[in-house]
Design goal:
This is MARVEL domain-containing protein. There is one protein chain. By secondary structure, this protein is mainly α. The chain is built from 9 helices and 2 strands, in the order ααααααααββα. It folds into 2 domains: about 150 residues, no CATH class; about 30 residues, no CATH class. It has a two-stranded antiparallel ribbon with strand order 1-2. The chain is elongated, with a radius of gyration of 35 Å.
C-alpha cells in the first residue's frame, strides 16, 4: 500500500514570505562574511576584537540559523505564525542593538567620503567601502526582520479572524469515521477513476417489476419505454 503524506498549505502569501526571508538571509550572510574578514585581519595583526563586531556576528549567525530552521519547518509541517514571530523578535532586538553600536562607533567613517583626500591609499579606500557595505547590509537585515514581524502579525490576525482549522470536521459531519483509513482509500480510488462505470437510478426490484412498471432510468437521462421493459406473464400461457 502506498503511503501518502500531505502538508496543509502555508498561511503566508508566497511572494512576500519568501522575498523577505531571502533579503534577511542574504544580508545576514554578507554581514557574516565581512565580519569574518575583519576578525581574521585583526587577529593576525594582534588587535583586540571590538565588542560591536561580536554583537554583529551573533545577530548574523542567529538570523542564518533561524531562517534555515524555519524554512525546514515550513517544508515539513507548515510554519506557525506564532513560532515565526518568536524567532523574528529575538534576532531583531540583537540587530537593533548592533545597529546602534555600529552607528555610534563608526559614524565618522560612515559619513566620510571614500576618497584619497580622507583615506590616502587604495587600501584605506577599500576599508572605507567595506565599512559602508557592512553598515548598509546591517540596516537591510534589520528592516527585513521588521517586515517579517509585520507579516507575521498580519497572517496571525487573518488566521484568528477565519477561525481555527479542523481537518476532521467535514468528515465527522457526514457521519463517517475520520480515522477509517480503508474508507479514505476507497474514496480516493473512486475519485481517481473519475467516476467511470455504469450508474443506475430507480432500478425496480424483482417484486416490483411487472406490467406497467417504470423502466430502468440511466444516469445519462435516457428513459426506456414501459412497453419494451414491461413483462406480462399471461402472454406466455
Amino acid at each position: 500500500m502506498r503511503s501518502r503524506t500531505s502538508v496543509k498549505p502555508s498561511d503566508y502569501p508566497p511572494l512576500p514570505f519568501h522575498g523577505i526571508r531571502s533579503i534577511i538571509f542574504l544580508s545576514s550572510l554578507v554581514v557574516a562574511i565581512i565580519l569574518a574578514i575583519f576578525i581574521y585581519h585583526l587577529r593576525a595583526d594582534g588587535f583586540k576584537l571590538p565588542y560591536v563586531y561580536l554583537v554583529l556576528l551573533l545577530s548574523s549567525v542567529l538570523s542564518l540559523i533561524t531562517i534555515t530552521t524555519t524554512a525546514l519547518v515550513n517544508c515539513t509541517c507548515r510554519l506557525s505564525p506564532k513560532l515565526s514571530l518568536f524567532t523574528n523578535i529575538l534576532p531583531l532586538i540583537i540587530w537593533l542593538v548592533a545597529l546602534g553600536l555600529l552607528a555610534y562607533s563608526m559614524s565618522g567613517t560612515i559619513l566620510t567620503a571614500c576618497t584619497t583626500e580622507y583615506w590616502a591609499t587604495a587600501t584605506g579606500i577599500s576599508v572605507c567601502r567595506t565599512y559602508k557595505a557592512l553598515f548598509a547590509f546591517t540596516v537591510l537585515s534589520t528592516l527585513g526582520h521588521l517586515l517579517a514581524i509585520v507579516l507575521d502579525v498580519v497572517v496571525r490576525r487573518r488566521q484568528t479572524r477565519l477561525g481555527a482549522y479542523d481537518p476532521m470536521a467535514s468528515t465527522a459531519a457526514l457521519g463517517e469515521d475520520p480515522w477509517d483509513v480503508k474508507l479514505a482509500e476507497r474514496r480516493d480510488s473512486v475519485a481517481g477513476r473519475g467516476g467511470g462505470g455504469a450508474h443506475y437510478d430507480d432500478v425496480p426490484t424483482g417484486a416490483g417489476a411487472g406490467a406497467g412498471a417504470p423502466g430502468v432510468r440511466f444516469q445519462s437521462g435516457y428513459q426506456h419505454p414501459a412497453e419494451r421493459t414491461g413483462y406480462d406473464p399471461a402472454a406466455y400461457r
